[in-house]
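[scheduler] slot 2 assigned
[scheduler] job type: sequence-to-structure, two independent chains
[scheduler] chain ordering preserved from manifest
[runner] begin chain α
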Amino acid sequence: MPLAAPPSARRDARSTRLAVLLISVGTASFAVVAAAYVLSARTARGQEVENALIAARREQLQGSPSSAAEILATVSVWSLVATIAAVMALALARGRPRLALGAGAVIGGSIVTTEVLKKLVLPRPPLDPDAPPWLLANVFPSGHTTIAVATAVAFVLVVPYRLRGPAALAGGFYAAGLGAATLDAGWHRPSDAVGAVFLVLGMALWACGALVWWRGAGRPAEPTRAWAYLPLAAVAALGGIANIVGVPRTLRAIDSGPLDRAGVEEAYAVGLALVALAVAGAMGVLLAALRD
């Protein structure tokens, strides 16, 4: 009869499987980023729809800054440095230097990747003949949304295990709010925010997979409480329903001519629902992936 593998060998095999799982889910998240970019920036239909939305929002604002722009202005280099320092300090205070490095890498890597993709890598071909010149530049993915989601995800990673659920809810609310502000201010299209959300999720899961591969996987004292998933599932469900109902109506309104004020408000609500769905889904995936 073959001998059973020693506990250390079983633990190493478990860590390897978990690392591969985390990296695989992270890769799938990057695939969502690619799909969002292709559909929104590399197809004429995608450009026409989102250009109509952002142009109508800008016209609605009529050059006057919204309160959302004031909120977005609070995101600065210094606030970002303070956030990274706070996240890494929390991990170090818990005696987790590798985790501090990983959390800092998630924030820094996400932001650098976003800026490189937006400014150097991803083109936005002129597929919409009616687009004004100011809509031709690529702004995918959203930098402000990336910062907000990366901050939220990093705090989920570094807090004690039992606090991950509350951290995901609070961080998700903050990230969704800032992502919505980029739409409200007329700075970004919905796809820009969605791409940023899943870019950060992919970075976080890759970082977690690397940490597990490097250090091994421990066994949490208790699983994540089910209640932590319920608000995220509720928001995701409401966002999904809003998009199922609202997207066809918005498309018909755009095809019928310039959006009136009611059409702009409805399209804006659909965009907010899409951002909320993306953030809630990403936070739920993160919690589920970190259960072990």
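[runner] end chain α
[runner] begin chain β
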Amino acid sequence: RAVAVLAKALNRHRPVVAWSGGKDSTALLHLTLKMEPDIPVIFNDTIVDFPENRRYVHQLAQAWKVNLHIAKPAPGVTFWTVVKKYGYPMLGKRNTPGRQHLPETYARGLEAKGKHRQAQAVLEGHLGSTCCEFLKERPYRAMMKALGADCNITGILAGESQLRSLTWLDKGEFYQDKRGMWKATPLAIWTDADVEAYLARHQVPPNPLYQMGYHRNGCWPCLQDLAFADNKLAIMRVAHPKLWHFLIVDYGLGKRLIKVKLALSDGQADMFAERWGGKDINLLLEQFPCWFDSL
């Protein structure tokens, strides 16, 4: 079925393959290259990708002779400049403003809907989801335009989220989006086990991030999965302690997390935050570093 979807995209359009370095998109890339070895492949370099992921992409691209194109943010646009204005990614895209909406404006809308805790968390943490638009979506669309492509082939699995499941049920594996761009998701009905079996069968080198304990790749400062127990920040504390320390201490994210967690608990005092975090965050870091592992 995946091959049939790929054949439709290759025969009817001028497609590109989206490759993040993650296991799903790597399996898709391997499958696609067997059918069209010279297909243009786009890697979104957000500049805040894990260094291990960037090395993996470039090494595998060289080994497989990939027709690789690197999409980067516009000059002067960085993760840090975007989140300073539009908010830090933390509560998930459904719970924070995107599309260049400011946290303050979004919070007023939440208050009007009676979502007081969420509104307070957005304000206290200065939270948002616009970074994806500036760091990924715009550079990717610009690269597709430069390549003359009219179809994007991605490794999305329908089972990854409820939204992706509903999109697949509504549109299938090959459809045209609101911008008029065609999208193909050949692996939509695959499971994680299918992907892992495919990679093992074809002896595809694994991304080292998975061996370090991460479940996903992507921007290392992104905390959109913080509500889950196996989130990136919790793993980073062990796998990348220097990056973790930079975020929590040097960048000041620890103090922001304290405010967000207190807001989500409706202002009820948290013993750890009140006793240590409010006065000296280093005491909290020394005695309870795992306090920051989740919301």
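[runner] end chain β
[qc] chain β: The first strand starts at residue 15 and ends at 18.
[scheduler] slot 2 released
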